[in-house]
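Figure 2 data, in text form.
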Amino acid sequence: MSITKETRRSAYDEILETLSQRQQIVLDGLTGEMTANELARRLWLNGIIPTPDRNNVHPRLNELVEAGIVEVVGRRYIVTGK
């Protein structure tokens, strides 16, 4: 069976209605493929979260992945190069 775009969109809209405020902030801050560190820094620079610590966003990213809203696409090593 194939799911129509309308059905997928409807399900997506229903999920969005159940997001917590922090989950919505994290989702709104995502643009393209970003690491938790990049997202935390962006939200911090915009004054949305108090520090650039990835722990401000990583738990919410995990929740969004579990809900099927966000997808893990790989790994990037930026800060330490390891």
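Caption note: The two ends are 43 Å apart (CA to CA).
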